Structure formats: structure tokens, C-alpha cells
Amino acid sequence: MRSLLSILLILTITCFGCKKENKAIAQEENEIVLLDSLSKEKAKIELLKLSPQAITELENFEDFQNFKTLMLSMSNSNPFYIKKYADSVDLLVQSFNENLSEDLKVNTISSRIAVITTESGLLMQLAEKKNPDAQKLLDANIRLLTAYNSLIIQLNELSLAIPENIEKELLRERDILRDSILNPKEKNTEIEE
Q1: Is residue 120 part of a domain?
Q2: Quick check: is 66 in a domain?
Q3: What is the residue range of 107's domain?
Q4: Which of 42, 73, 118, 156 gives 20 to 30 Å between its CA and that of 141?
Q5: What is the pLDDT along the chain (193 residues), one digit of tens a residue?
Q6: In a domain, 142, yes or no
Q7: 153 three-class SS
Q8: Is-contact 86 42, C-beta < 8 A?
Q9: Contact call for residues 70 and 89 (beta carbons, < 8 A)
């Protein structure tokens, strides 16, 4: 009889212990905030535009056009869609990098693409978490869009590169102008004489 009471007591304690554990797990699950597809939060960063010359140079580069379109979507996305498109961004960045034309394989462009690759990888890691934090996704998206803007700046500079002989002429004109501004007294004395 005594052993029967001991067994019942142990079973009762075990059952109540399990119920308390289940309640704790249920409360933990309620604290997890799910990403809302109707959220109004989005990155507050404006994407830069390509110069007209860069547009004409890159119009046949399909990987870049797809990447640019996705970046435009990411700039208007809330955390739900940022998570949804993170793997697409990572895939397009890799494709863009692999299919880069020879004239774009310069250090400045390569370094910007490396930064974008890093940021897209970090965004993908955040998106792959079971319950990603909405604010962390937004912050990662802002860093990715900033890296994209940096790439656009470099592409614009590359497309507007000045030929060497024109650059020398501009530098010579600048020196003449600077000398005339720095030494106005010499000109005044020449005029008076």
C-alpha cells in the first residue's frame, strides 16, 4: 500500500511538472513576434540612379538589370518581404559577380561587389533564422542598399572617366586660373605700367 501511494505521488508530481513546463513553452512562443506582411516599415534610404552614359553601357548586362530591379524592390520592402527575397538577392549578387564584363573588372568595382556580397550573405543568415528580428532585417537591408549605392557611384565614375589628354588640358587650365587668382597684384602692376 505504501509503495502504491509513493508511485501515485511521483506520478502526480511528474504530471504537474510537465503542465508547468508546457505553459512556459507556450508563453515563450507567444513572445515571438511574427513578421507582418502588411507592415509599413521599410528602409528609409533612396537609391541612386545611374548616369545616362552608364545606363547605355549596362543596358545589355541582364544580370545587372535584374539586380537593379531587385534592389529597387528591396528599398520598398518591409521585413516580411526582405526575408522572402534575401536568397534571391544573394543569388543575383553571385550571378552578377560571375558574369562581370572585363571592362568592369577594376579594383573599385570589385571591392564594391565584395561589400555587397558580404552584406547579402549577412542578410541571408538573418533571414534563415527560425524567427528573425524585424529590426535586424531592416538594418541589414539598409546596409545592403548603402553598399548598392556605393556601387552605383563607382559605375557612374567609371562611365564618366575622362580621357588622359583632356584631363591634362583641364589641369593646365586650372593651374593658369589658380595662378591668376593667387597673383592678382602682378597683373595690376602690368596694367598700370
Answers
A1: yes
A2: yes
A3: 52-161
A4: 156
A5: 677 667 766 777 776 666 555 555 545 444 455 665 556 777 778 889 998 888 888 888 898 899 999 999 888 888 888 888 888 888 998 988 888 888 888 888 899 999 999 999 999 999 898 888 888 989 999 999 999 999 999 998 887 765 554 556 667 777 777 777 776 555 555 555 4
A6: yes
A7: helix
A8: no
A9: yes
